[in-house]
Amino acid sequence: AQSVSQHNHHVILSEAASLELGCNYSYGGTVNLFWYVQYPGQHLQLLLKYFSGDPLVKGIKGFEAEFIKSKFSFNLRKPSVQWSDTAEYFCAVSRMDSSYKLIFGSGTRLLVRP
Amino acid sequence: DAGVTQSPTHLIKTRGQHVTLRCSPISGHKSVSWYQQVLGQGPQFIFQYYEKEERGRGNFPDRFSARQFPNYSSELNVNALLLGDSALYLCASSLVFGYNEQFFGPGTRLTVL
C-alpha cells in the first residue's frame, strides 16, 4: 500500500533557527507532491506543491522543498523560522494515474519559541 | 471570493444514528473530495466526485456514502454511526478531476457518543 512517512512528529525550535521536516513516500510511479500547513484554529492551507520541472520548489512565507526522486523524498525547509510558523505541517502525495486522491502523512507539530 | 464552505461546524450524535455533512466548493471548481481526520493523524481519503460521478473511493465501509449535485456541492452521509467515526470531516475542491491541487474547507467536527 502507498504510504507517506513524516519522521518528526513534534519539533521545537527557537526563533531564527533553521527548519527541515522530512517526508518520504512509497510509490514508484509519477507523483505530485504537496506540503499543507494548519495554523492553530485554521483550516488546511497549501504551502507549496511540486508537479514537474525544477525539483526545488518555493512556497509561501519563505518555505521551500526539494524533491529527490531517487530517495522518494520531499523535505520541507525554511532558513529562519518565526513564532508565527507554529503550526502542524502535513506532507501529501498524489499519484498521477486514475486515482488522484491525496495521501497524507501523519503530520509534524512545530512549536517555535519566541 | 469565498473558499470551500462546510456545514455544520460541529455535530454531536449518538451511536446508531445517521449524519449528513454538506460542502460547497469554490466557485468554478467541479471536483469535490472528502477526507476524515482523526485526532493525531493526517487526513484520510474517503471519496472524490466529479461531474456528479464518483471517481474514487477510499477504504471506508459502505456506511459511508456521498453524492454531488448539479451545482457541484456535495453531501457526505454516514449511517449507523460508531464511536470510531468521531473525527474532523474535511471537504476539498479542485478545478477538475485530475487537477489535484485541492483547497480545503474548515471541516465539520463530528462527535459520536
Please, could you describe this protein's structure?
The complex is a heterodimer of chains A (114) and B (113). Chain A is mainly β. In chain A, a hairpin with a 6-residue loop joins β5 (31-38) and β6. Chain A has strands at residues 4-5, 10-14, 19-21, 24-25, 31-38, 45-50, 56-58, 64-68, 73-78, 87-95, 102-104, 108-113. Chain B has strands at residues 5-7, 10-13, 19-24, 31-37, 44-50, 53-57, 64-68, 74-78, 87-94, 103-104, 108-112. The radius of gyration of chain B is 13 Å and the shape is globular. In chain B, 36% of the residues are buried. The model of chain B has no long low-confidence stretch (mean pLDDT 94). The chains are: A mainly beta (114), B mainly beta (113). At the A-B interface, β5, β6, β10 and β11 of A face β5 and β10 of B.
Notable characteristics:
heterodimer; A: 114 residues; mainly beta; four-stranded antiparallel β-sheet; globular; B: 113 residues; seven-stranded mixed β-sheet; 0% helix
The tally of beta strands of chain B, per DSSP, is 11
Tally of contiguous helical segments of chain B: 0
- Strand fraction of chain A equals over 45%
Gap between N and C termini of chain B, in Å?
37 Å
Structural class per helix/strand content of chain B? mainly beta
Largest sheet of chain B: 7 strands, mixed
End-to-end separation of chain A in angstroms reads 41 Å
Query: What percent of the residues of chain B sit in helical stretches (DSSP H or I)?
Result: under 10%
Percent of residues in beta strands of chain B: over 45%
Categorize the overall geometry of chain A: globular
SSE topology string of chain B: EEEEEEEEEEE
Uncertain runs of chain B: none
CA radius of gyration of chain B is 13 Å
Strand segment tally of chain A: 12
The share of residues in helices of chain A is under 10%
Mean pLDDT of chain B: 94
**Mean pLDDT across every amino acid position of chain A:** 92
Q: Uncertain runs of chain A with pLDDT below 50, 5 residues or more? A: none
State the major sheet of chain A: 6 strands, mixed
Largest interface: A-B, 22 and 24 residues
SSE-based structural type of chain A? mainly beta
